[in-house]
Amino acid sequence: MGETGQSTPAGTSGPVSGKLNEFQRTMLQWSGLHPYNAVHVARITAVIELGGFARAAAHVLVEAGLTNYVVRDKGGVYRYEGGRVEVVPLVLEGGDDPVAVVHREMERQLNEPFPSDGLFQPFRWFLVKGEGETFVGLSYFHVVADAESIGRLLREVITAAIDEVPQPLRDGSLSERRSSRVPTGGPLGLLRRTAASYGKFQRMRQSFRSPDCPVNRFDNEWFGRSLDADETTAVLALAKRHGATVNDLCLAAVLQAVIPAAMWRFEKKRQHLSAGCVVNLRRDLPESRRRDFGLFLGSFSVTHPVPVTVRLDELITSVHAQTEEVKRAKLYLASRLEFRMNRFLFARQPLEKQRNFYRKAYPVWGSITNFKMDGFQIGEKARVADYYRAVSAGPALPFVIGVTGFDGRLQFGFTYRPDVIQGEIVRGIADRFLQILTGKEPVA
Predict the structure, then answer these.
(1) 438 vs 444: CA distance, rounded Å
(2) What span, in angstroms and rounded, lies between the C-alpha atoms of 349 and 74?
(3) CA distance 145 to 158
């Protein structure tokens, strides 16, 4: 069920072209195997009328020039043609458990392809009706934007829908797309980071590989977990007590949580465990580009022997030392070289080898991606009560955890590939992960 919202182009709307950065080109390659999408959902304390929402979404997209997108793998180029767009949100009844309906739809949207051949709209909208509330969902072709850009776009559209009267963009940065280029830090810095990247790769070669994928399938399954304010406070206190960041604590918790799932590594030559982390690179951009709409991400990984008897404080100390080195030398900027090399090698593999390529080239068991959405204000008529997020695991990861900070609480989205790691195992990892974060003893 849907209702159409249409908008004609503003005077400033028009074609904008550019080149994809290395992470975007890698995502585009992955989407050739299976949809590589992400989903954001905001829980709004108001009933949002469908027709008004459709018109507001269309108006914002046209004003921002985010319509009629074309992307080409050859040359890694994209183009927003701009112009008129038709928005037809999917509407779902929440029934007795609207959050469960939202979660099921988020998983479905992760696996739903965008028609990326030729011109298409890289955004899909859905609404889930609750009692006196509305869940507003935005699923998007991940190549176009990172979580920061999407959070601002979602806020703009919801605010416009609640205001009901079309207005110019409140956040003018949504229409700014100067360049997708990610800095390298200069020739000398690039050389140092390349050497450091090679050293990291050598350490990762000692890592135990995740289970192999026996079939040519890349489906995602997803579930969400939440911490209340008190539990979130406990997480922050635990990280502070160890002199580490919440990100450090999450990485350490991933390594410790997967121990029971990787017990047979002690029979193998490679026994270490590795976990990855996606990094927002906007601080490394020139000041004028830091709020541009687009995707500016890098990555790094941490590695540890992780014996069965390892203490959490030992893991946190090791992880913190590794992340401090990464931040001090900006080693995450070297990830563009890894993306390029892996993309080159991946393209030359048959499908039967592509499905297990990354378990050898990037042997991490899981990854963390952090996003803080505090300060999401949509005016006086309603407020955002909660925020959920789902990201694709792609062919590179057995599972990925989307960590979202909102209004003093932490939300977690667990995405995994069931053909690589069973759902029961992932849910056990999730249970241990959250108990470790909150300072409780992990379950057996």
Answers:
(1) 16
(2) 18
(3) 18
289 within 8 A of 178, measured Cβ to Cβ: yes
User: Which residue is it, tokens 């694709």?
Assistant: 392
Write the DSSP string, 252-271: HHHHHHTGGGGGGGGGSS--
Return the higher-pLDDT residue of 335 and 411.
411
Helices vs strands, H then E, count in the chain: 12, 16
How far apart are alpha carbons 88 and 91 in whole angstroms? Answer: 9
- If asked whether residues 101 and 211 sit together in one domain, one would say no
Please tell me the predicted confidence (pLDDT) of residue 5. 55
Strands 69-72 and 77-80: antiparallel
Greatest alpha-carbon pair distance for the chain in Å reads 66
| 181 located within any domain | no
pLDDT band at 7 (very low <50, low <70, confident <90, very high): very low
Asked, for residue 442, whether it belongs to a domain, the answer is: no
Structure tokens at 125: 């909208």
- Per-residue pLDDT of 322-337, as tens digits, reads 999 999 888 888 888 8
Q: Which CA distances in Å does 73 have to 29, 31, 348, 358?
A: 8, 11, 15, 20
Per residue in 67-77, pLDDT tens?
Answer: 999 999 999 99
Q: Is the pLDDT of residue 8 over 80?
A: no
Residue written as tokens 């500016």? 296
* DSSP H or E run through 171: none
> What's the average model confidence in pLDDT over 255-277?
92
| Nearest one of 173, 197, 441, 123 to 282, comparing CA atoms | 173
Tell which of 149, 175, 201 closes a domain. 175
Mark whether 10 and 157 lie in a shared domain. Answer: yes
The dihedral region occupied by 379, where left means phi > 0, alpha psi between -120 and 50, and beta the remainder, is left
H or E element that contains 414? strand 409-416
